[in-house]
């Protein structure tokens, strides 16, 4: 019989599991759970912001997460500054898209 911890280790062994990565995935999970509860309690209606299409809260979350990921990757790839600055810029971008997108 195969040891379960060994198969889990080999399955996720390629990824650098650091505290920052864990916080990232926990935050994404909490955002999705929170948005699900919010949608159940108060269904969203489409509205038009600065994005070129009418969007719901979930649409804006998806677009904001994609934009934040691209900004964070660009920051990491093109600069040698602290990564926390890129993460902060990405977070502010996500907030702007969620609020006014």
Give the radius of gyration: 17 Å
> What's the number of helices?
4
| N-to-C CA distance | 53 Å
What percent strand? under 5%
Q: pLDDT under 50 segments (min length 5)?
A: none
Q: What letter string, H or E per element, gives the SSE order?
A: HHHH
Domain count: the total is: 1
Sheet with the most strands, sense and barrel status: none
Output the structural class.
Answer: mainly alpha
Described by the principal axes of the CA atoms, the overall outline is globular
Helix content: over 70%
Number of distinct beta strands:
0
- Mean pLDDT figure: 83
Pfam families: DUF2160 (PF09928)
Transmembrane segments: 21-40, 61-78, 84-100
Keywords: Membrane, Transmembrane, Transmembrane helix
Protein name: Putative small integral membrane protein
Describe this structure in words.
- Pfam families: DUF2160.
- The chain crosses the membrane at residues 21-40, 61-78, 84-100.
- Keywords: Membrane, Transmembrane, Transmembrane helix.
- The chain is mainly α and 101 residues long.
- The chain has one domain (19-44, 54-100).
- It contains four helices and no strands.
- The chain is globular and about 40 Å long.
- The mean pLDDT is 83.
